[in-house]
C-alpha cells in the first residue's frame, strides 16, 4: 500500500499533495497518509467534497504521528 509521509512536505503545499494522492486513488485501492497532527481538517474536507467515496481509518501510534488510511470506494 502506498504511503505519503506528509510531515516532510512544506506546509504551504501539504494539503494539495494529500488531496492529489487521494483523488488519484483508483476505486478499491488505499493509501496511508502520515502526519504529525490530527487528521480532523483533512477528514472534514474529504467528507464535505467526497462524501461516501472513502473508507477512513485513523491511528495514532505515537504522540507526534498520525497514520490515516484512505480506501477509495467509488
Give a quick set of tags describing it.
4 strands; globular; alpha+beta
Shape: globular
Low-confidence stretches: none
Radius of gyration from the alpha-carbon trace, in angstroms:
11 Å
Distance between the termini: 18 Å
Share in β-strands: 35-45%
Give the overall average pLDDT: 93
The ordered string of helix (H) and strand (E) elements is: EHEHEE
Largest sheet: 4 strands, mixed
Structural class: alpha+beta
Going across the biggest sheet, name each strand in turn.
Answer: 1-2-4-3
Count the E strands: 4
The percentage helix is 25-40%
Number of helices: 2
What report would you give on this structure?
It is a single chain. The chain has helices at 11-24, 40-49; strands spanning 3-5, 30-35, 54-62, 65-72. The chain has 74 residues and is an alpha+beta fold. It has a domain at 29-74. Strands 1-2-4-3 form a four-stranded mixed beta sheet, with helices on one face. The model has no long low-confidence stretch (mean pLDDT 93).
SSE order and pairing:
Layout (H helix, E strand, L loop, with lengths): L2 E3 L5 H14 L5 E6 L4 H10 L4 E9 L2 E8 L2
Parallel strand pairs: 1-2
Antiparallel strand pairs: 2-4, 3-4
Amino acid at each position: 500500500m502506498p504511503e505519503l509521509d506528509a510531515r516532510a512536505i512544506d506546509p504551504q503545499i501539504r494539503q494539495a499533495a494529500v488531496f492529489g494522492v487521494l483523488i488519484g486513488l483508483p476505486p478499491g485501492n488505499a493509501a496511508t497518509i502520515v502526519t504529525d497532527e490530527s487528521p480532523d481538517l483533512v477528514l472534514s474536507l474529504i467528507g464535505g467534497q467526497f462524501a461516501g467515496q472513502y473508507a477512513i481509518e485513523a491511528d495514532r501510534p505515537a504522540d507526534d504521528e498520525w497514520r490515516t488510511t484512505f480506501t477509495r470506494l467509488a
